[in-house]
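step: validate -> pass
step: tokenize input -> pass
step: predict -> running
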Amino acid sequence: MIFGMQMATETASYGEWPSPIAGADVARKQIGLAFPTMADGCVWWQEMRPAEGGRQTVVCQGPDGVSRELLPAPWNARTRVHEYGGRSYLPLADGFLFANFSDQRLYRRRDGIQPEPLTAAPGPDASDRFADFVLGPGGNEAWCVRERHCSGRDQAGRDGAGPVSRAIVAVPLDGSAADDPDAVRVLVSGSDFYAFPAPSPDGTRLAWICWDHPQMPWDGTELRVAALGDGPVSDKNEQQLLMGGEAESVLAPIWRDDRSLYVISDRSGWWNLYLADLLAFPRALCPREEEFAEPLWQLGRYPYAVLDDGRIVVVHGQDQPRLGVLDSGTGQLTDFDLPYQVFGSGLSASGRSVVTIAGGPAVPLSVIKADIPAAGQSRQAAEVHELRRALDSVPEAGYLPVPREARLTGPSGSVVHAFVYPPANPAVRAPDDELPPYIVWVHGGPTSQVGPRLDLEKAFFTSRGIGIIDVNYGGSSGYGRAYRERLRGQWGIIDVADVMTAALALAEAGEADYKRLGIRGGSAGGWTALAAVTSGIGALGPAAPHGATREAGSDAVGGTGRKGVFAAAASYFGVSDLRGFAAQTHDFESRYLDGLIGPLPECESLYAERAPVGHVNDATCPVLLLQGLDDPIVPPAQSESIAADLAAHGIPYAYLAFAGESHGFRKAETIIASLEAEVSFYGQIMGFTPPGVPRVAMACRR
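step: predict -> pass
step: emit ->
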């Protein structure tokens, strides 16, 4: 074990508990696992390694049970389509193809041979990116989504940021397009966005998902089908619309036969599984007030998989999803008794086996393979094999927080979903008269969802005596379309109210010190954190509840006289300037604010009113800003502008910028520096000194 259990018990203030979980453990021992795929008796997946600068490689486990890394450094299998990417490889009979991060070209690697390019190098006029791969009907092409970036200047005046277009294309596997870009055939064009290209079993038709600005894929998409001919299908009159529209999100079509497809739709208010027929109305297979899918942030992720006997393996539920098998004929759904409460990165099946990523509060995220019993046998017992864990070893159980599901009531009477992670360290106990600091964690998206999974990043804080409440605020996925749409036009209001509700509920219950409540978030979560400490609703909180007895220390930055709910805020690459974000962000999210705030220019006054920039005031608490300098989604100007606003008002803050980092930190050294800075920041604000952690420098110290 890399983490030892201390047997002696000592008394120490919350935040000052000695912990065996260092930032280096979080950064270097916890890898990213994604996009498992079954092909020809093998299981494939992507692996992101912080210790290698965040490089993403491809791993394959054969029938012999031996896992082999197939892509050595410096190759990096990571596509930048939509900037969030997705599955970046496709297994082939004699190897695989992959999208290489540095040049975004497609490469083919045959067994024992160096990668060979399949697409052209970026040119002076345009550069291409590729994702969402499937083998074409003839076996000699890869069909996928192509995203083309043209040169020139965009409306914001940025060089090399001209128009962006997308199409579904066919890339020849013989390498002919590496020198002749015209060898890439366009199959479908005419929409702003595409996903899930799916050729029919007989190869005569193509199905796909598409949508246009200002829609996001969780707002409204379309399932379309067209007959394949000699040229591209760009005229929508030549396409059959099966399902979808501006108020229906459809996802993940898989052909059942040559005239019908399985597909996910939220037309009932929940992402459920349907059968869509070319000649009949769609039919719900198992209608439930549960989600059978998640938002389409990354391409190539199927939320269900079809076994060879026609049964469908699904992940479904709300707060804690379950893995089950669905009989598409009868609609009977039977769950498996598995030790996992979190599932992600999609499903893939072959024969009667399925692979996915799964984990739980005490089980790290893992690539698992489940052998599904034959129809008619006991379906409660699926034989499960863990093929790869995100952590080779885990801390002793006493150092891991045990999450508790919480359903709170917001100010409007709506339910707020959250998971509470109390401080946990068997070697230390706090003074009897002391309550712990708690940090509200705000996920990104804002349509993402958090679940109760083992996460060393959380344990880094809780083992030091700092509690966490992870909130699925209004706008989160997992609870139906109505819950997602609570945030429509209300970004910066509903999310802020919900995270305040979560924080104050802990203080009212006597679980947290009201004077030491903090908030942290990344991306859209960073926006909520900043909005919560600058907007009127967040900066001027209600009176302190009963229960908080310990004052922040005399050396605490900013003293104890704050007026707001939160004593400290940490923003990881968070949005602070709405007009700047709308003008500078990437194409995929360039119209996202139309739904979250309102369209421009009609709602320009709302953009100014809601933005944290321009609303820093004397009630604003100290803020920690962490930013990647290569971030194309939330550019550094967002953190720089709020830092300038904080400085102008004399609010204590720290700003850490990291070269070579994008949207979401990947390098081990960055992850270590960020975590240590964050816990040091909380200590300086809340009056404790975390042992063994360097002190982060603060600006504008009061």
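step: describe -> The longest helix spans residues 668-686.
step: cleanup -> pass
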